[in-house]
Structures are given as C-alpha cells and as structure tokens.
Amino acid sequence: MASLIRAVFWLSLGTYGIMRAAADCGKVPLFQRIMGGQNSTPGKWPWQVSIRDAKGTHFCGGTLIDNKTVISAAHCFSNTNMVQLPVTACLGSFSLNQTNPNEVCVKVKNITSYPNYTKDTDSGDISILELDKEVNMTNYIYPICVPVSGLTFPEGQNCSVTGWGDISFGTNLPDPRTLQEVTLPLIAANKCNKSYHTYAGGAAQAEIRNDMICTGIPQGGMGACQGDSGGPVSCQKDGLWYLVGVVSFAAGCGLPNRPGVNTLVPSFSDWIVQNDPRASENLRPAAATPASEASTRCISSLLIPLSLILLVTY
Length: 314
Prior knowledge:
Pfam families: Trypsin
CATH architecture: Beta Barrel
GO molecular function, one term: serine-type peptidase activity
Protein name: Serine protease 33-like
Helix content: 10-25%
Largest sheet: 6 strands, antiparallel, barrel
Keywords: Disulfide bond, Hydrolase, Protease, Serine protease, Signal
Number of helices: 3
Distance between the termini: 57 Å
Strand order of the largest sheet: 9-10-11-14-13-12
CATH superfamily: Trypsin-like serine proteases
C-alpha cells in the first residue's frame, strides 16, 4: 500500500510539473552577444533555443512556447540547400562551446512556415517547429507566453533580445560563445518605416509593415546580428514574459537609423494556435504596464554601407 501511495504521489508531482508549465508560462524559475550586449546568466532566458544543422552547428535562434513546440523565423529554413537536415533544437543552452549538463537537444520533426512568406523582408517571417518528443520543464528549460491576437505593447517599452549571433558585422561571438542579451526599446512599425527611408550612408531601405515591430536606438550600436535570426524579443507584462517578436532582418548590424526588424507575434497568434493547438495553453492576455527602467549600454559599430541582411548564420 505504501508503494502505491508513493507511486501516486510521484505521478501527481509529474502531472503538476506539466500543468505548471501551462499555468506559469513566461516565468523564470531560477529568478522569480547580440551586438552591444553582454553575457547572460544560466537560466535567465529558459525559453531560448539554439537551432542547429546536421553537423551540430548553430545557425538560428528559436523560442520554446510549449513542451513540444519552438517558434523561429521562416527565412532560417527557406533555403534547404544551405540548411543541412535534420535540424535539431537545443534547449537549456548557454555557452555553445562548453559542456552543459542543463542542455537537452531534440530533433525537429516538422517545420511549418507561414504560407505567405516567400522572400526576404516579406511579412510572416515565422515558423513553427514541432519537436520529435516532448521535453521536460526544468529551471533552464521553460516556455514563454504567447500574446493573444491584438495584444499591444507600447512603443518605448524596454524588451530583451537574446542570441548567439555575431557581435558586429562579420565578427563572430568569441569562445566559449556565451548567450548574449541586450535591452532595447520597441519601435512602432510606422516610425520604424520612416527610419528605414531616412538616408543612412548608403544602408539599404525597406518597407516596414504593421505586422512587424522594431527594436533599437537611433544612434545604433546595439541589436541583433547574423546568427540571431529566429530568436526572441521578450517583453514583460504583469510579471509574465511574452514572445512579442521573432528576430527577422536588418540593414547591417546596429547601424544608425536601421533598427532590427522583427515579426510581430500577436499578428500571428491565431495562425500559431491553428497549427499548434497546445500553444493555446500558454496564450495570454495582459494589461499594459509601464516600460521597464532597465539600463542599456552602447558600443561603437562599423558604420559601412550594407544591404539588408537576414540574421542567419550558414
């Protein structure tokens, strides 16, 4: 009888752990180089995913939204000649070139990209990655909340961009390739569009649409770069972290008047749930809260004329 009670007790704990992931998405269990960024801390961004090719090489970021689903950018998988299959999603990753007991790597079973995305800078640069098996939630592996369709986040709110991309154009993140983070304000699509049509030393222009959102500062020096594509723009409201953006493209890395452009996730929440019903468990509304007062810091960048680049590493 005692054995039966213990079995029921442990089963209940397991069920609680699964339910907790749905009930408490967007929380950081341990805490109740991005260009111009700084080293992160293990477990600080437990939804961050490293997407790797058949050789185990990181080429894009991703975001865990439930125990079997990762969100990334469609352009990461648009060129199958460049991406060596099968693709693997590594969760709990921190320093890519060091052994990590908290890391779990799972093969990607299926990739569903937004059907209207056909070329660079299009709307809908977003993909759903179905993992080959469910992953257990830990202090280092935990889903972020998905914002309900139509949920708005105020311009100027400070959010976090994370990834293992280059630290400047053409300069790889140095060993041991530790996860980078940077705090940047959100920029509304219409304002971002004006920036992208302002002359900036020959840097490329682009049309920024309403289903996109930008992150950056006018003087540049901070932002996503190659290898950060598909990673999260994480914003906090009412104590929960939301996946507000998916890193998409930029004109160079951290150039003045060329902020990072991201897919605006609330515009695609319904599509996500249609293709991944379990994501509805972590779909959340939220009331607006004041922008974070988190500090930012800037470093100099190479101000050279550049074409628009997708922030993927091959």
